[in-house]
């Protein structure tokens, strides 16, 4: 909410608000035992295979990536 408020007000500290989100996320992933690097790389790879289409100026996902197990 603070990052959006900073963006809305065109404040110079938007980058600092984003850094706060990253710090919080890193701490939470450590507490929960989530390998954030692994999850991030997996998600990037998954997103590469999704199909998108621009509809009325908005990018919309048109096909979900199906992982082979």
UniProtKB/TrEMBL annotation:
It comes from Candidatus Faecenecus gallistercoris. Gene3D superfamilies: MazG-like. One of its GO terms (molecular function) is nucleoside triphosphate diphosphatase activity. The lineage of its organism: Bacteria, Bacillati, Bacillota, Bacillota incertae sedis, Candidatus Faecenecus. This is Pyrophosphatase. One of its GO terms (biological process) is nucleoside triphosphate catabolic process. Pfam families: MazG-like (PF12643).
């Amino acid at each position: 909410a603070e990052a959006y408020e900073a963006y809305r007000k065109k404040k110079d500290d938007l980058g600092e608000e984003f850094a706060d989100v990253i710090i919080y996320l890193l701490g939470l992933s450590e507490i929960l035992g989530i390998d954030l690097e692994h999850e991030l790389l997996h998600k990037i790879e998954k997103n590469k295979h999704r199909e998108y289409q621009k509809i009325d100026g908005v990018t919309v996902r048109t096909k979900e990536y199906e992982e082979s197990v």
